[in-house]
Amino acid sequence: MHHTTVPPLAQMLRNLDGWLEQGIAFAATREMDPELLLEARLYPDMFPLRRQVQGACDSAKLLCARLADVEAPRHEDGPQTLPELRARLAEVVAFIEGIEVAAFEDAAAREITLPFMQGMATTGHCYATEFGLPNFYFHATTAYAILRHVGVKLGKRTYIGHMTLHPARST
Amino acid sequence: MHHTTVPPLAQMLRNLDGWLEQGIAFAATREMDPELLLEARLYPDMFPLRRQVQGACDSAKLLCARLADVEAPRHEDGPQTLPELRARLAEVVAFIEGIEVAAFEDAAAREITLPFMQGMATTGHCYATEFGLPNFYFHATTAYAILRHVGVKLGKRTYIGHMTLHPARST
Question: Is B133 close to A133, i.e. CB distance below 8 A?
């Protein structure tokens, strides 16, 4: 379970930090306060960019903590400003990458119970594939979509980011 | 690799079909042609809903076919209309769910080469976690975001859809 969660989540959180950086550069060209980007949303009753970034951080942190059965760092208040959000992204990357790989050994079969399940439970595997990963990518992609929607020039390569490649044996 | 790809992808493709159905109902209340929804996009140089649905279908189909090393059904032209898109969604679900689980046995270590890798390759595992799944969720979430952006009332539960639950042993 470690390999299907920690490396891709850390990668995408780093990508997300890069999109915010591009948003800050975009705001500078428009002579606008970059913090205003955090208020942007795709529809009045959808969460704004600030909350999407918080959601990406929280979902990555909680997914990995629950799978590895370790305590997640407690964050009482969500980060509000761009510097706070970027610091939180770095903090969550460090947290999930710092969990020992061995702690994920029994993660696939681990029983996971969440408040909204009301006495029901799921396995670590189903929790990750049916809820944790889709939920994380929901927030990351919506953050990307909001930045694109307001005019920040991001590309699909920026979304995918680094890939682990080696010279092809067969071609 | 089967369990981390086929069930969640099939689930999300079914969810996506449900969002389109809700879009059709929404269009009826506005007395507008539902096909117009397929032209909606979040920014002039982003792909519209039609292409996002095609992208979700293609990325799911190709991810599973490459991991299992089986031939994917060929689709020369992208589906254009809502009925065509919904038929394609059902077809891709049937295709990926029809691949034998055993075909995924060596998928994690399988060498995957793609045109854009230019002589380089990746493993099935890295391909799925670093490219295939994020790319799939990119298209699914952007389709969801476009429908929400034009006013279709979807909720996060509709995004996540069905979860596999069992009575909790420990509470």
Answer: yes
